[in-house]
Write a structure and sequence with these properties.
Residues 481-494 have low confidence and may be disordered. A hairpin with a 5-residue loop joins strand 13 and strand 14. The protein starts with 11 loop residues before the first helix and ends with a helix. Helices cover 38% and strands 21% of the residues. With 494 residues, the protein is of the alpha/beta class. The protein contains 21 helices and 21 strands.
Length: 494
Amino acid sequence: MKEYEPKLALRDYQIEALERMSGRPAFALLMAMRTGKTAVLLADYGRLELAGEVRDLLVVAPKGVYRTWEGEIEKHLSADLFSRLRVARWVSGKKIDPEFFDDSIGPRIFLVNVEAISAGKKARDAVERFLATGEAMIAIDESTIIKNREAARTKYALRSLTPRSKVRRILSGLPTPRSPLDIYHQFEFLRPGLLGYASWWEFRFRHAILKKFLIGGRYIDLVVGYRDVEGLQRRIEPHSFRVEFRPNIPSTYSIREVELTEEQARVYRELKEFATTTLAESGENVTATMVVTQMLRMHQVLCGHVPVEEGEVREIAENKTSELLELLDDYAGKAVIWASYDADVRKIAEAIAAEYDPKTKIVDSFGRERKVPPVFPNDVVARFWGGNASTREEEERRFKTDPRCRFMVATAAAGGWGRTWDVADLVVYYSSTNNLEHREQSEQRVQGVDKKKQVDYVDLIAIGTIEEKILAALRKKMDLAATITGDDWKAWIV
């Protein structure tokens, strides 16, 4: 039989991954970002299609990732398969050509974002219509999207996707971002009982250390640790292929200290001590009634904004933006700036544009230089966040290809997965979320297997604050949200 030949030659470890998957209807590609797991998956689909074992491919991925598959399909699939292929991408509010669902004509690939099948019946109906032949492979990209047993997307994947497919794959560089328990439902999607557990409850009993806490007048079991992680890894190994990313040149990590303004220091101190404060300029109150909210408000204050009791967001004078501009002034290449909040993306992008875009500087009739507000999309700075969903793909393209567009400002929630921004060699964390997965995924955006330049990571930190503790936790591979239990919160607040 003729062998399938992808358009681009695979690396040795990618060929090994294909060999490991051979003959397995359920398999996990646990390959770090930038190691080419998409190419492996498409080669796997190509050879199975050529052999007549599957015909169609459904790709389920996060919203910020699934669009990139169209380019990868054209880049990697063999010329023969690509010439016979029909590809459709789910877009909310847009109708898919009815001919795409005619299963009598050639192989098909359907790209769907997980948010659509989580929230909408129309997307689910389209998926189920596509899978009606029972001749499909299903791949879940960034498979941690189905790690939560209570999430609608997880229930739908296990109930409706697994039984409708011949071959299933999961792709993830970090399958257990918060805890070893995250792995269970990802492997249940591949095949119920694949890891040898009769139920979720047996799995949790085997690997979680539980402790009872009195919450809301009743005792609740909470996970405080894990056991037999090595045994779990042994169960996973036969059904997976693991590749860790090793950049050619070691990266550097440093911090840049930011001094708080007087107003920031006062508001932060009062929130920490009393969980409430009053803003000097407006006289409005800021109150946090829960510990997690208290920590969030303290973090927001350090970024220069905070919601008041009425719900409106108020700005607080801060030095972090000017510190960022000073840092960028000493750098000649491209940089990625990560921010935790949408408000920060807007503020940072406007500040960078005002500094670097010549169109924001005009000279009046008296020869005096004046500044005008920047216009977005902008020539020198790109953004990738929830507020520019309609333009961010084009802004990303300019960042990757236009020498004038030197800066990408993004939130990890939007741009932290599936993006390749290796044109940048500087990464600045204006702020970090307390989510380990966000941090590790966002760090990988600028890496590449063939990258020759060193990457410098810089965190802007107010020393002696919760920012310092968040960064220390992330450096120790700890997820703050998963770490705080019982009275542990005191170590973070105090």
